[in-house]
Amino acid sequence: MTYKLLKRMFSSSTNKKSRQVCIVGAGPAGFYAAMHLTKKLESVNIDIIEKLPVPFGLIRYGVAPDHPEVKNVINQFTKVAKQANVNFYGNITLGRDIHLHQLRQHYDAVLLTYGAEEDKTLGIENEDAKNIVAARNFVGWYNGLPSDRDLKIDLSHRTAAILGQGNVALDVARILLTPIDELKKTDITEHALSAIAESKVKELYLVGRRGPLQVAFTIKELREQLKLKNCKTIWRENDFQNVESVVPNLARPRKRLTELMLKSFNERETSDDNPNSNYFKPIFFRSPNKFLVNQDRQVTGVELTCNKLVGDKLEDQKCVPTDETELLHCNLVFRSIGYKSIKADNDLVFSNGLVKNNKGVVEDSSGNLSKLYVAGWLGTGPVGVILHTMGNAFQVAKVMCDDLANVDTKTKGGFEEINKIINSNNIIDWTGWERIDKYEVDQGKLRGKPREKVCSVEKMIEVAKV
Ligand code: FAD
Ligand code: NAP
């Protein structure tokens, strides 16, 4: 008897007695919440609904290809998905194929974990010019996100700038400046690999609006960047004034990070001109003011406002603009100032860019609809590593467990009802994902890579349904 059949038999026999929980979004928050719920609740059936035919959210489509160890959490998530009372239903989008009130009608609880899938914008002049690329789209492009497959990016220029100094910005910098022979061994998509192999970018600025003491990137990521072969890091002398003197007062992670920057700054060479070197050039205290463009609306530079910092507590200091500006000439710009959640369903109430919630509980007066919860980036905001997302998902799942302990109706129809509403032949279950997974690994082997991702939804469906 096949695994699929066994699972279906088991889950339909338990379903009728179980509390029905729907999780929307198969990223880390969704899987960690499912893990907690299945551990702590005796009779629960969990359906994970996902927009894409494939699971894992930003683990698959965000984490950099040269960080395979980070992706090992997929093994834990796979164990969760293979439990008899957990079901994955891919290729279903909340707000398009199904609506929140329908889920709340047919489940005892609904948990939203659909993340943050847009990016923040600067709102400055000429932001729509050619070759200004959202880091989020660039990341999606090199990681095989179907919607970013055809990203328009011109890598034929020498100088580029990344606006923002978080870990996403460092991922972008590292992928652009890593020797191609190293990238070849990763699961980076073939289309990105061939474009980066031809890249002429040699000088990459990393622009921060605050100072070295306020950078958002972390030490491991900076260390990787500083160790890149054939890449010199050039800091600006003025940016490090007085930094050394405050180091002893800093909290430990910030202290170690600042010491690493200072070490690199103090090691700067003067006679280093190897014509083949790449240059990584962090600059601080500069905010983008407007983009310069040529007659074809191609970006040619960024006007930067020079800032000064105000406030007592170093890490929380705010930047305020001065009257001075500076021009940075470049023909490619990445905007890397953070992600943003969207209101996927009209019934959701947003506040400060997040689903309005109180420790994961969405408080509303929706009559007899079931309770609604939110976890992960959709509930906390688009910051924090997987570990933070895990902590938050566990916390919210704990609240759900307490609430569900008092639910004894056990009358909800769950996915049987949802399936009738959606009425589609293209829903992808876990077996379908396993077929896609195998196909990708096989395609990767042909190219000496861990996997070659399928980059179109149509092809995913075709492979899943064989
Ligand atoms: P997501 O991972 O975004 O998952 C949300 C899921 O919901 C997705 O599968 C999405 O397709 C789905 N979805 C979206 N809309 C809908 C809808 N309408 N209906 C149904 N489903 C929907 N952390 C680390 O610890 N290490 C790293 O190396 C690391 N690298 C990162 C690199 C990048 C570029 C980014 C952006 C983040 C990185 N992080 C890393 C952080 C980590 O990815 C997040 O903490 C984590 O993914 C957040 O999980 P989530 O479940 O809230 O959201
Ligand atoms: P982030 O860490 O919040 O960094 C955003 C950067 O953009 C900051 O430097 C911020 O400066 C700047 N910024 C924001 N608004 C701006 C504006 N209007 N003008 C100029 N600069 C602006 O966001 P992220 O890089 O997108 O990362 C998101 C989360 O994912 C983070 O928690 C990150 O650690 C995590 N992540 C982890 C890894 C990893 O572990 N390897 C990799 C990628 C991402 P201010 O500080 O001044 O606001």
> What is the structural class?
alpha/beta
Strand content: 15-25%
End-to-end distance, in Å?
A: 19 Å
Determine Rg (CA atoms, Å).
Answer: 24 Å
As laid out across the biggest beta sheet, the strand order is 3-2-1-4-19-18
What's the number of extended β-strand segments? 19
Average pLDDT number: 94
CATH class of the largest domain: Alpha Beta
CATH architecture of the largest domain: 3-Layer(bba) Sandwich
State the oligomer: single chain
Percent of residues in helices? 25-40%
CATH superfamily of the largest domain: FAD/NAD(P)-binding domain
Bound molecules: flavin-adenine dinucleotide, NADP nicotinamide-adenine-dinucleotide phosphate
Morphology call: globular
CATH fold topology of the largest domain: FAD/NAD(P)-binding domain
Number of helices: 17
Low-confidence stretches: none
Q: How many structural units, i.e. domains?
A: 2
Main pleated-sheet profile: 6 strands, mixed
What does this structure look like?
Strand 11 and strand 12 (299-310) form a beta hairpin. This protein is an alpha/beta fold. The mean pLDDT is 94. The chain has 17 helices and 19 strands. The protein folds into two domains: 3-117 and 341-427, NAD(P)-binding Rossmann-like Domain (Rossmann fold, 3-Layer(aba) Sandwich), CATH 3.40.50; 118-339, FAD/NAD(P)-binding domain (3-Layer(bba) Sandwich), CATH 3.50.50. Strands 3-2-1-4-19-18 form a six-stranded mixed beta sheet, sandwiched between helices. The chain has a six-stranded parallel beta sheet with strand order 6-14-7-8-10-9. Strands 11-12-13 form a three-stranded antiparallel beta sheet, with no helix packed on it. The longest helix has 20 residues, at 386-405. The protein has helices spanning 3-15, 28-40, 57-61, 73-81, 100-106, 135-143, 167-177, 180-183, 190-197, 219-226, 243-246, 252-266, 377-380, 386-405, 415-422, 430-446, 457-464, and strands at 19-24, 44-50, 86-90, 109-112, 118-119, 132-134, 159-163, 203-207, 231-233, 278-283, 286-293, 299-310, 318-329, 332-335, 339-340, 350-351, 354-355, 361-362, 371-374. The chain is 35% helix and 20% strand. The chain binds flavin-adenine dinucleotide (FAD) and NADP nicotinamide-adenine-dinucleotide phosphate. Flavin-adenine dinucleotide binds next to helix 2, strand 2, helix 3, helix 7 and helix 14.
